[in-house]
Amino acid sequence: MKRVAAFFLGFLLICVAAAEAQIDKGTYYKALASGEEQSINQALAKLEGQKASPKVNAYKGALTMKKAGFVKGVGGKVKTFKQGAHLLEEEIKSNPQNTEFRFLRLAVQEHAPGILKYNKELQEDKQAVVSGFDKLDTELKGVIADYARDSKVLKEADLK
């Protein structure tokens, strides 16, 4: 009986740990949309504590690119932006059908300064988001629909 109880307790602890290790999309997207350095840094710190995965890397990439706007000096901004872009681009290259990753890149491209020339995939990413939208979970659909309300590239009508 003790073995069964010990097994059950161990299983329960593993489940709790796995649930905590999951990425909270709401917190991540709130930080990304906020444009507040503190929120971005907190979200990045949480991601640093996560085991590396395609989603963690893509989120880190997008947040790092957003964080570049707070870095002092042009060289530092560009370097930080490129570090984030590398992370996100690698995940898109490995997972080209991942609608969420394509949405992340679309959102960054739409708001990246033109001098960075990080806007060449806007229409391709828009099409990927539109075509994969119906397959997404409700939370992510809400995030994308909210984004589309103010976007110049992705419109609410595109998602219907």
List keywords for this structure.
160 residues, mainly alpha, 8 helices, 71% helix, globular, disordered N terminus
How would you describe this structure to a colleague?
This protein has 160 residues and is mainly alpha-helical. It has one domain. The protein is built from eight helices and no strands. Residues 1-21 have low confidence and may be disordered.
In the predicted model, the low-confidence regions spanning at least 5 consecutive residues are 1-21
Proportion of beta-strand residues? under 5%
Secondary structure tally, helices: 8
Largest sheet: none
**H/E element string?**
HHHHHHHH
Supply the number of structural domains.
Answer: 1
- N-C termini distance: 56 Å
Secondary-structure-derived class: mainly alpha
Output the radius of gyration: 18 Å
Helix content: over 70%
Summarize the entry for a quick read.
The longest helix is centred in the middle third of the chain and has 21 residues, at about 75-95.
How would you summarize the topology of this molecule?
Blueprint: H1 2-21, H2 25-34, H3 37-48, H4 54-67, H5 74-94, H6 99-111, H7 122-132, H8 138-150
Helix pairs in contact: 2-3, 3-4, 4-5, 4-6, 5-6, 6-7
